[in-house]
Amino acid sequence: MTHPTHALSRRTLLGIGAGLGALAGTGFLSGCATSSSTRDGASPSPRATGDPDNPLGVPADLPLEAVIFKGGYGDQYAIDAEAIYQQRFPQAEIQHTGGQELGKLLQPRFVSGDVPDVICNAGAGALMLAPLVENGQLMDLTPLLDAPADGGDGKTVRDTLLPGIVEQGSFGGVPYALNYTFTVHGLYYSSSLFEERGWTFPTTWAEMLDLCQEIKDSTDMAPWTYQGKNPGYILTPLVMMAIKAGGREVIEALDNLEPDSWTSEPMLESARAMYQLVERGFIMQGTSGLTHTQAQTYWANGRAVFIPCGSWLESELGDVTPDGFDMVIASPPSLTDDDALPQAAIRGMGNEAFIVPAQAENPYGGMELLRIMLSPTSSQNFTRQTQTLTSLADYDPQSAGTGLTSVRDALTASGDDTFYWRYGTWYSPLQTEAANATSALMTGEIDPDEWSRRCQAAADAVRNDDSIEKYGDQ
Q1: InterPro entries attached here (predicted)?
Q2: 89 — phi, psi (to 5°)?
């Protein structure tokens, strides 16, 4: 069975490319249950007024509290949107918290019921969404999606978003999260280094191994590094290569927890390919002990040639990146010449999930802040600060570095073959175990066969656990 939402239309992706093309010459912790979905035990209803300036009927004097993950994108973009909110509701007191490890920060508050009005739930320490959904602790964001878009020329918020964004934040067909950014995942490298050395990005795994050997033999750089303490980063290219090898059926198997989802030939072949990096000594020494910022800093300083990451990397590194480094992203190589999807096919999807707790005092204020953030003005401001796209379609980002320009080029090349998966969002225990198994694989503690067995056992455990709600086509 094919999910059409697993692919983005070429028209949409070319539209993203066109918006950026004009710039080319310009330089997990689990949520705990509470007994009720709101403080009085009933979900609040939107106070729609018909006012185009306040379509959600937000009380003018009700305080607003926002907790924003302060990672690679910082949180200034949210502070700027809050300033617009303040202009519209001058009587409202705004409390803003930017931080990391949001699960540790917010889990006790979900237990007590004293929750913020809107949360950017992102980063390695984010709250697990599925338990919050299952326990009725998140608002259905349909009122936001059906509201008039800010600066949307009469369109609803839903109509202004990139394809797949609503679905990626939905559980059982209900939108509980809204991914603010549109993220592309792949391998990063320095285009100026490649030009200097006369290297070409490898399009097959055999070419990758040959280039890695040349790098090892002729330079003092390691071919690869990755964010060792956050092994989900290195799991991503492994899954990407398997999907390109086996086609969208691999996505369906993973998302639907099928009995052979992790032991299929494409998954095994991809694990075997990644394991060759270990066997041949192509991983930078000490990688497994590095945080994501440490690994990325070593990479930017020339200690390694390739690093897997999402398109937040350019923003996250900031001034750490040397002048003239010219980072670019590319999809990982094809495993073979017979892959089901072309080498250029890439993972593109929403990220930085925003949620509105059901127990919030001002949930429609939280949605109104999101409505402001999804305006062209706020999206342009975000991209200017972060070199990253938002999930708003058809806006002009107005500025692009080499990383963002390469994201444009990668999406254009991928076109209708752009894909994503959702098992990690739906089933956090599976994602955690698959990442841990991949960490063991990349340090040589286990081999690819054991890796596949461990991952499959985790998928089977989730599938057979009746206490875990299932969201795929079971």
Answers
A1: Bact_solute-bd_prot1, Chitin_NgcE, SBP, TAT_signal
A2: -130, 70
Nearest to 242 by CA among 328, 334, 316, 162: 334
Structure tokens at 313: 């990397």
What 3-state class would DSSP assign to 70? coil
pLDDT at 412 over 90: no
Fold (topology level) of 185-348+422-464: D-Maltodextrin-Binding Protein; domain 2 (3.40.190)
Dihedral of the CA atoms 107, 111, 117, 121 (nearest 10)? 20
Name the E strands within 71-177: 94-99, 118-121, 170-171, 174-175
Count CA within 13 A, CB hemisphere, residue 339: 26
CA distances from 29 to 7, 32, 108, 191, 470 (A): 30, 9, 11, 38, 19
Query: Rounded distance, CA 314 to CA 312, Å?
Result: 6
Separation in Å, CA 408 to CA 87, 193, 422, 467: 34, 21, 23, 42
- Which residues lie across from 131 on neighbouring strands? none
d(CA 213, CA 178): 43
Domains of the chain: which residue ranges?
25-183+349-399, 185-348+422-464
The two three-digit tokens of residue 153, written as one number: 């020329």
Residue 21 and residue 205: Cα distance in Å, rounded?
Answer: 30
- The whole-angstrom separation of Cα 267 and Cα 334 is 13
State the Cα–Cα distance between residues 191 and 223, nearest whole angstrom.
15
* Paired strand residues for 29: 127
Q: At what angle do helices 265-279 and 205-218 cross, to 10 degrees?
A: 10
Closest listed residue to residue 87, CA positions, set 378, 385, 331: 378
- pLDDT tens digit sequence for 80-97: 999 999 999 999 999 999
State how far the Cα of 203 lies from the Cα of 207, in Å rounded to an integer: 7
Average pLDDT score over the chain: 89
**What is the spatial distance between Cα 241 and Cα 342, in angstroms, rounded to a whole number?**
10
* H or E segment to which residue 255 belongs: helix 248-255
Residues 435-441, mean pLDDT to the nearest whole number: 98
Dig out the tokens for 72 from the structure: 């690679």
What residue has token string 């490298």? Answer: 189
pLDDT in tens, 452-462: 999 999 999 99
Compute CA 398 distance to the chain's CA centroid, rounded to the nearest angstrom.
Answer: 22
